[in-house]
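Long-time lurker. I teach an intro course on protein structure, and each term I like to show students one example going from raw sequence to a predicted 3D structure in token notation. This year I'd like something fresh instead of my usual example. Would anyone be willing to generate the tokens for the chain below so I can use it in lecture? Attribution to the forum is fine with me.
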Amino acid sequence: MRVFSGIRPTGDLHIGNYLGAIKQWIELQNENECVFCIVDLHALVTPWDPKTLQKNILETAVAYLGAGLDPEKCILFIQSQVKEHSELNWLLNNICPMGELLRMTQYKEKSKQYKNNINMGLLDYPVLMSADILLYQTNAVPVGEDQKQHVELTRTIAKKFNGKFGQTFVEPKAMIAKSGARIMSLQEPKKKMSKTGNPKGCIGLFDEPNDIKKKVMSAVTDTGKTIKYSPKTKPGISNLLTIYSLFSEIPIKELEKEFANKGYGAFKKALTELLILKLEPFRKKRKELLKREVYTAEILNQGAKKAQAIAASTMQKVKKKMGLPD
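-- Reply from a regular --
Happy to contribute to a lecture. Here you go:
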């Protein structure tokens, strides 16, 4: 099975990224043909700083590798270094109905968030994402719930293209983690954990122990002292239970029994110790990789060559089907 996924180089990864996507990738790379991409072209649809973009790209690559991706088991590359992404994006623009893009939830949300920067790229983001996926004849796309709609659009575009020009693309399916696909903010437990949200509500994958302790111990809980999983009535403690369960691999029901009558303070202390322990290997690996920029750059260059070979093969078929010259 071929798997494709990517992440924008917009800052440090947090545990929500890890539990919702990267943890899956690490597991998937052992049994599948995986293509993972740093989608720098997608980063241009919202305001960015040209002076720091390349630094963010490199740090994102370090984060991928530090989190456990193995360049011997997967292809890791930078989106803009494979020109076929932009080329297929344009061709698919002539297949995708305008109405499909206007109804995209993320477009509506981003338009409200960036009122002074509603550009064509923001609207066309899902088509570029479709090109990313379809280029590699992808079977499965591990994504968070917020991207599921985009994968469905990709399937729509693939079906429309195949129906018009003949079988060309694999119709991919979204692969959503059964749990952990939506880790919430520690300060606003009804909002998804985000790098751009309240910094106290977001635990970075490479946070230092003291920072982890401060964030967990100050996390918003709920009225009462019962440690019980109930997202609607107790969103704060439910979110912390989810995090604890995913990192410890202990079912939530067992955690509820273990911490019965112990109170929020004891639970938070135990969660803090768990996270410091589990994230230590990531911090150590990242520090090593930051000292080896040439090594990381070479991994990305080799990854781009491998990705380009697959992408070029797909584009040759697409152009032939559409009547374009090679």
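Some talking points for your students: The two ends are 28 Å apart (CA to CA). The CA atoms of residues 151 and 174 lie 6 Å apart.
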